[in-house]
Amino acid sequence: MRGVVLSCCRLVICLALLGATLGVLGSGVPAAQAVYPGKHITISVSRERLRAWVGHHVVLVTPVTTGNRALPTPTGYFTLYAKYSPYTMISPWPTGSADWYPPSRMSFAMEFARGYFIHDAPWRSVYGPGSNLGTQPGTNYGGTHGCVNVPYDAMKFLYNWAPNGTPVHIVG
User: Fold this and answer.
1) What integer pLDDT is reported at residue 110 of this predicted model?
2) What is the dihedral sign for C-alpha 103, 106, 110, 116?
3) Exposed / middle / buried, residue 94 (Cβ in 10 Å: 0-12, 13-18, 19+)
Protein backbone atom coordinates (compact mmCIF):
# COMPACT_ATOMS: atom_id res chain seq x y z
CA MET A 1 0.00 0.00 0.00
CA ARG A 2 2.85 2.37 0.85
CA GLY A 3 4.31 1.86 -2.67
CA VAL A 4 0.97 2.82 -4.23
CA VAL A 5 0.77 6.01 -2.12
CA LEU A 6 4.35 6.98 -3.10
CA SER A 7 3.59 6.28 -6.76
CA CYS A 8 0.44 8.42 -6.55
CA CYS A 9 2.38 11.24 -4.89
CA ARG A 10 5.03 11.10 -7.60
CA LEU A 11 2.32 11.18 -10.27
CA VAL A 12 0.65 14.21 -8.65
CA ILE A 13 3.99 16.04 -8.42
CA CYS A 14 4.83 15.22 -12.06
CA LEU A 15 1.39 16.41 -13.21
CA ALA A 16 1.76 19.61 -11.19
CA LEU A 17 5.17 20.30 -12.74
CA LEU A 18 3.85 19.50 -16.20
CA GLY A 19 0.90 21.82 -15.64
CA ALA A 20 3.18 24.63 -14.51
CA THR A 21 5.40 24.10 -17.54
CA LEU A 22 2.44 24.05 -19.91
CA GLY A 23 1.12 27.16 -18.24
CA VAL A 24 4.25 29.00 -19.38
CA LEU A 25 4.87 27.21 -22.65
CA GLY A 26 1.20 26.88 -23.56
CA SER A 27 0.69 30.62 -23.22
CA GLY A 28 2.77 31.32 -26.32
CA VAL A 29 5.59 32.79 -24.21
CA PRO A 30 8.96 31.08 -24.77
CA ALA A 31 10.27 29.60 -21.54
CA ALA A 32 13.50 31.64 -21.81
CA GLN A 33 11.50 34.88 -21.65
CA ALA A 34 9.50 33.72 -18.65
CA VAL A 35 12.48 34.38 -16.35
CA TYR A 36 12.23 38.14 -16.93
CA PRO A 37 9.15 39.58 -15.23
CA GLY A 38 10.35 43.20 -15.56
CA LYS A 39 12.59 45.25 -17.82
CA HIS A 40 15.20 43.40 -19.87
CA ILE A 41 17.20 43.77 -23.07
CA THR A 42 17.83 41.12 -25.71
CA ILE A 43 20.41 41.45 -28.47
CA SER A 44 20.75 39.16 -31.48
CA VAL A 45 24.23 39.25 -33.01
CA SER A 46 23.14 37.35 -36.15
CA ARG A 47 20.20 39.70 -36.74
CA GLU A 48 22.02 42.82 -35.52
CA ARG A 49 18.93 43.74 -33.53
CA LEU A 50 18.20 44.93 -29.98
CA ARG A 51 14.86 44.65 -28.25
CA ALA A 52 13.86 46.25 -24.96
CA TRP A 53 11.12 44.50 -23.04
CA VAL A 54 8.84 45.00 -20.06
CA GLY A 55 7.78 41.48 -19.20
CA HIS A 56 6.59 39.97 -22.47
CA HIS A 57 5.90 43.31 -24.17
CA VAL A 58 8.43 44.85 -26.55
CA VAL A 59 8.88 48.59 -25.97
CA LEU A 60 11.76 49.18 -28.42
CA VAL A 61 13.22 47.42 -31.45
CA THR A 62 16.29 48.89 -33.13
CA PRO A 63 19.04 47.79 -35.50
CA VAL A 64 22.51 47.69 -33.93
CA THR A 65 26.09 46.94 -34.87
CA THR A 66 28.02 44.33 -32.89
CA GLY A 67 31.60 43.11 -32.87
CA ASN A 68 33.28 41.88 -36.01
CA ARG A 69 34.65 38.34 -36.41
CA ALA A 70 38.04 39.23 -34.92
CA LEU A 71 36.57 41.12 -31.92
CA PRO A 72 33.14 39.55 -31.30
CA THR A 73 30.49 40.74 -28.88
CA PRO A 74 30.28 38.24 -25.99
CA THR A 75 27.13 36.15 -25.83
CA GLY A 76 25.34 35.05 -22.68
CA TYR A 77 23.48 36.52 -19.74
CA PHE A 78 24.68 39.83 -18.32
CA THR A 79 23.46 42.69 -16.15
CA LEU A 80 23.90 46.42 -16.71
CA TYR A 81 26.17 47.54 -13.91
CA ALA A 82 27.39 51.02 -14.89
CA LYS A 83 25.98 53.94 -16.87
CA TYR A 84 27.84 57.03 -18.08
CA SER A 85 26.72 60.20 -19.86
CA PRO A 86 28.76 61.51 -21.57
CA TYR A 87 31.59 59.02 -21.91
CA THR A 88 34.91 58.82 -23.74
CA MET A 89 36.30 55.44 -24.76
CA ILE A 90 40.09 55.13 -24.58
CA SER A 91 41.71 52.40 -26.66
CA PRO A 92 43.26 49.57 -24.62
CA TRP A 93 45.49 48.78 -27.64
CA PRO A 94 48.77 50.60 -28.22
CA THR A 95 49.11 53.24 -30.91
CA GLY A 96 50.16 51.48 -34.11
CA SER A 97 48.09 48.37 -33.36
CA ALA A 98 45.52 47.50 -36.03
CA ASP A 99 42.86 47.63 -33.29
CA TRP A 100 43.91 51.00 -31.78
CA TYR A 101 41.41 53.84 -32.01
CA PRO A 102 41.56 57.50 -30.97
CA PRO A 103 39.63 58.68 -27.89
CA SER A 104 35.97 58.31 -28.88
CA ARG A 105 33.28 60.42 -27.24
CA MET A 106 29.67 59.31 -26.97
CA SER A 107 26.56 60.62 -25.26
CA PHE A 108 25.34 57.44 -23.57
CA ALA A 109 27.18 54.27 -22.48
CA MET A 110 25.94 51.32 -20.42
CA GLU A 111 28.46 48.68 -19.32
CA PHE A 112 27.27 45.07 -19.23
CA ALA A 113 30.62 43.23 -18.95
CA ARG A 114 34.09 44.53 -18.14
CA GLY A 115 35.04 46.72 -21.11
CA TYR A 116 31.88 45.90 -23.10
CA PHE A 117 29.21 48.57 -23.53
CA ILE A 118 25.92 49.29 -25.22
CA HIS A 119 26.41 52.84 -26.54
CA ASP A 120 25.63 55.37 -29.22
CA ALA A 121 28.26 55.82 -31.95
CA PRO A 122 28.29 59.29 -33.52
CA TRP A 123 30.89 58.13 -36.07
CA ARG A 124 28.53 55.48 -37.49
CA SER A 125 25.58 56.00 -39.86
CA VAL A 126 24.83 52.35 -40.76
CA TYR A 127 23.34 49.79 -38.36
CA GLY A 128 21.73 46.38 -38.78
CA PRO A 129 22.55 43.27 -40.82
CA GLY A 130 25.89 43.49 -42.60
CA SER A 131 27.24 46.37 -40.54
CA ASN A 132 29.57 44.06 -38.59
CA LEU A 133 31.00 42.01 -41.47
CA GLY A 134 34.12 44.05 -42.22
CA THR A 135 37.41 43.96 -40.40
CA GLN A 136 38.01 47.61 -39.51
CA PRO A 137 36.00 48.66 -36.42
CA GLY A 138 34.86 52.26 -36.38
CA THR A 139 33.77 52.24 -40.03
CA ASN A 140 30.16 51.86 -41.20
CA TYR A 141 30.62 48.20 -42.17
CA GLY A 142 33.54 47.21 -39.96
CA GLY A 143 31.68 46.08 -36.86
CA THR A 144 32.85 47.12 -33.42
CA HIS A 145 35.58 46.12 -30.97
CA GLY A 146 32.93 44.00 -29.20
CA CYS A 147 30.56 46.70 -27.98
CA VAL A 148 27.00 47.10 -29.20
CA ASN A 149 26.52 50.34 -31.17
CA VAL A 150 22.99 51.76 -31.08
CA PRO A 151 21.50 54.69 -33.06
CA TYR A 152 21.39 57.90 -31.00
CA ASP A 153 17.61 58.21 -30.45
CA ALA A 154 17.24 54.54 -29.46
CA MET A 155 20.27 54.78 -27.16
CA LYS A 156 18.90 57.92 -25.49
CA PHE A 157 15.66 56.02 -24.79
CA LEU A 158 17.54 52.95 -23.45
CA TYR A 159 19.79 55.03 -21.22
CA ASN A 160 16.83 56.77 -19.57
CA TRP A 161 14.68 53.60 -19.48
CA ALA A 162 17.08 50.90 -18.20
CA PRO A 163 18.43 51.19 -14.65
CA ASN A 164 21.59 49.48 -13.42
CA GLY A 165 20.68 45.87 -12.74
CA THR A 166 18.68 45.45 -15.97
CA PRO A 167 19.26 41.94 -17.41
CA VAL A 168 20.88 41.75 -20.86
CA HIS A 169 20.73 38.53 -22.91
CA ILE A 170 22.96 38.37 -25.98
CA VAL A 171 22.55 35.50 -28.44
CA GLY A 172 24.61 34.55 -31.49
Assistant:
1) 98
2) negative
3) exposed
